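Running log. JK asked me to keep both predictions on one page so they can be read side by side. First protein, sequence followed by its C-alpha cells:
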Amino acid sequence: MTAASAPAPASAPRPGLRERKKLKTRLAIRAATYGLIREQGYEATTVERIAEAAEVSPSTVLRYFPTKEDIVLTDEYDPLLESELRARPADEPIVESLRHVLRRAVSLGLAEEPEVTRLRTKLMTEVPAVRSRMLESMSVTGAVLCRVIAERTGRDAGDLEVRVFSMGLIGALTETTAYWAEHDHEDDLSALVDRTFAMLTSGFAGP
C-alpha cells in the first residue's frame, strides 16, 4: 500500500517462532534503512551500510528485500489487504469497503509510525527509483483488488471493467499520497482519502 499499512485483523493467529524471527529481521532491516536515510540521505544509504546497521549480511538484506526500494515500499501488512476487504460485509459497496479499510490504515499508520509514514511518502515523490519501483508494484495490489471486486460483483477478475476500476483506484490513492507529501504533509491524510473516495463515487465536478 502506498498511504499506510493495512491493519492486522484482531483475530489473526499468533505467528510461530520461525515467522517471528523472520519478522524481527525484516523490521531490523527497515529500521536500519530509515535511520540511515534520515542521517545521510537515500543515495548514500547502500545495502552494505544497511546490513552493517541491522547486523546481518548483505545477502540477508537482499533475500528479504530484492531491491533497496523494496525496503522503503514494503510494510508488514500488505498481504492483509485482501483478508481485510473480505472481512467487510458482502453487500457493502466495494468503494465503501476500500474507504473503510484504507482510512483505518492511515489512522493506524500515522498513530504508530508518523515519522516513517511521512518519510516513505516523501521518498515516493522525490526519489525516481522509489517511485518507479512503486509503479511496478502497483500491479500486485491491483491483482488483489481485482480478485475481491470480482467476487463481490460476480464478474471475472480479468474483465476489462474490473481491471480498469482496480488500477484506477490505485492510481487515485497514489496521487493522494503524492499530493500529501508535496504539500509538506500539512493536510489531514484521512480527510484527503475521504475526498478521493468522494470524487470516485460522485465524479469530478469541475470548478
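And the second, directly underneath as requested:
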Amino acid sequence: MTFTFRPVDPPKDAELLHSWVTHPKAVFWMMQDASEADVERAYAEIAADAHHHALLGLRDGVPAFLMEWYDPAHRELAGLYEPRPGDVGMHFLVPATGTPVHGFTRSVITAVLARLFEDPAVARVVVEPDVRNTAVHALNAAVGFVPEREIRKPEKKALLSFCTRERFERAVAA
C-alpha cells in the first residue's frame, strides 16, 4: 500500500479527527470525552509547537490514519528517560472501521517509520504505548521495536520501546 502525508489542518480536520479519537476503539488515545472544539484546540496547539507535529496519512488522497512525532527531550518523555541525539517520539492512530483490511495497520506503521527515517538525522524512534495495549506492542515488535522498560507517565503506565533504523530495515526486509 502506498500512502502520502499532509499536515493536519486543525479547523478543516477537527470533525474527522474527533470521530477517530473519540471512538471506543481509540481508548488508548485518551480523548474519549473530547468535544470537536477540544480536538481542534489540541491539534492547533500541536501545529504551533516546534517540538510536536501531526500529519494525516492519505490512501488514494483520502485520510486513512493519523501520525504524530515529537522531540522526546521536550515533549511526552521529557525527564522520563535519557534521550540520545537522533531520537524522535511517535504516535499513530488507525481509525476504527466496519470493514477491516488485513495487514492495513502494519502497512501504516511501516509507512510511518519509513517517513520518520527519511530524515537522516533520525537514528531511533521511541514509543510509549500503554502497557495494556498488547495489539500495538505486537505491531511495534513486527517493525523492529524492542521494549526497554515500563515507565510511569502522568496519564498511564507505558512500555518504553525503541526502534533503530537498522532494526526497522531488517524487520521490513524479512
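Observation for JK regarding the second prediction: Helices lie at 10-21, 36-47, 104-117, 134-142, 165-173.
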